Amino acid sequence: MELATDTIALLMAVAFVAGLIDAIAGGGGLLTIPALMAAGIPPVNAIATNKLQSSFGTASAVVAFARKGRIDFRRFLKPALGAFVGSALGAWTLQRLNPAFLAGLIPMLLILMVVYFLLAPKASEEDRQGRMGPIALVAIVSAIGFYDGFFGPGTGSFLTTALVALFGLGLVSATAHTKFLNLSSNIAALITLVIGGHVLWTVGLLMAVSSIAGGQVGAHLAMRVGGKVIRPLLVTMSLLLTMKLLSDPANPLRAFVMAHA
Fold this sequence. Notes:
mainly alpha; globular
């Protein structure tokens, strides 16, 4: 599929901003997937190409956090494997089912997440005792990984919220480990979608260059200012994603509300 030079340049600019936002709070797919579809790329190809570019941006953020010693790879190896398997299954399912039914559930989950961050006590920058153990961590991360492979946008926000609320991580630590887990799920989905022949390589790789730069800037910003910017961005991106999903007239939750209004 051929795209005009100015269209590719615009997509690269969007990828930079999305990479920056992704490194801090997740939700970059809210920008890149609609941008790819606005360029005339079919939905499954848009999701596949987004996985290619976002994998590079996420990897860039992981490197930045790892260099600062912010990622406990030993503790999060099994959850990362769970995210990989779950995402591969999600991407496999995506190619066989219509993902539209998820659009009714996701806004409700995002709103609950926003309520949690608005009403919960200010999250500590330090890790604390988690409410759940290692088995629950693997199970929850695997489920979020499935969602990432199947649908995608908001995955980083879901992971960060779970790590803070259920497993006792401070906001910066949760953000760092979210990048590691999200990289695993991105790679699994990407491999599955490459096998399915859905990735547009040229535009995806060009966007990846911008995403890498954005990921570096975002990771360093997250470590410098911590929860002061992470928490507001999580809330903002979650609300924007909710509005984006509900703006679709075909969204089942919107249709239900309108029918009973």
